[in-house]
Amino acid sequence: MTLAAWASMLILFPHLLCVNTASALPLLAAWLLFRERHLPEGAAARLARRQLVVSLIALVVGMLLGGVLVGLLMFEADSPLMEIFRRLPSIRYAFIASELAFSAICVALAIPFCRPDRPTSRPRRWSVAALAVLSSTNLLYHFPALFVALSHLASQGVPAEIVFDAATLRELRFDPYVVMLGLHHVVAALATAGGWLMFDAAFTARQRLELTETSSAATVRLGAWWVLLPSLLQGLVGLLVLTRLPAAEQQALMGEDLLATSLFAVSLLGYFVLLQGAAHAAFGGVTRKGVLRTLLLLGGVIFVMTLTVDRLRRQHTGTPRPPVAVLPAEEIRGLP
Question: Is the whole model's pTM more than 0.85, yes or no?
Answer without folding.
Answer: no
